[in-house]
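Explain the record.
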Amino acid sequence: MNISDGPSAAGAAPLRADDITMAYDKRVIGEHLSVDIPDGVGFTVILGPNASGKSTLLRSLSRLLKPSAGTVYLDGKDIHAMRAKEVAARLGLLPQSAIAPAGISVFDLVRRGRYPHQSILARWSEEDERSVRRALNQTAMTELADRPIDELSGGQRQRAWVAMALAQESPILLLDEPTTFLDVSHQVSLMDLFADLNRNSRRTIVAVLHDINHAARYAGHLIVMSGGSVVAEGSPEDVLTSGLLAEVFNVDATIIEDPVNGGPLVVTRHRGRAVVTGTENRKVTP
């Protein structure tokens, strides 16, 4: 497998990891990782099998996990030398399995996204209100704004957390499996929203995804991980090959042209049938 030299100079890297080692206590997840999150080439998707280090890399980039070696830079500064509120004003994170305080309403959860814009003496502003209402609308959660989070389905809760991340309005948004628990319609709606935010609002979006074809359709830049290492990165057209999918994901796959956008579409072979990755029991070719 060819390992790329990293993203080209097509865009600057507002967020990057320089030779980092990721570890929990003494358990090393990955060593000597260097990753640039480019700006201006579409949003970035991190792909890989389970336990490949995807979420750990995202935690390291977000300042939640301090590398045991190496440095993460945000806008050219060591992210761990920056104040928490300074980081929060520039970078938002939607983690996996987020936990909300018991009994909190959707609206009150989403308004917590405005924390980086508050000061001790500042009152809730019209701008704060607009940001929260806009985020609720973008995630189709307006009608559920007054409902307690505890009463919602898994998919509705996930959309509430996404709304909180959107209300933060940070220039960089990190998303760990943002489409978890969502039905297909809401998956597509959110992915379209993230693409629009990246394209029209110039926000840098980084998402950990499991759906390879969502990654192929929406990403401008892919980072593929395996065994705690970055094994390939670049455009979906360059990265998604039958050889890489066999080596990293252990699947027999063919790459065809996506009839919607002309990009790569992954078709895996399973029990004698060809199946579009991300679908279930759908026969494509004999």
Q: What stands out?
A: The domain at 15-268 is CATH 3.40.50.300 (Rossmann fold). The longest strand covers residues 27-37. The CA atoms of residues 104 and 273 lie 47 Å apart.
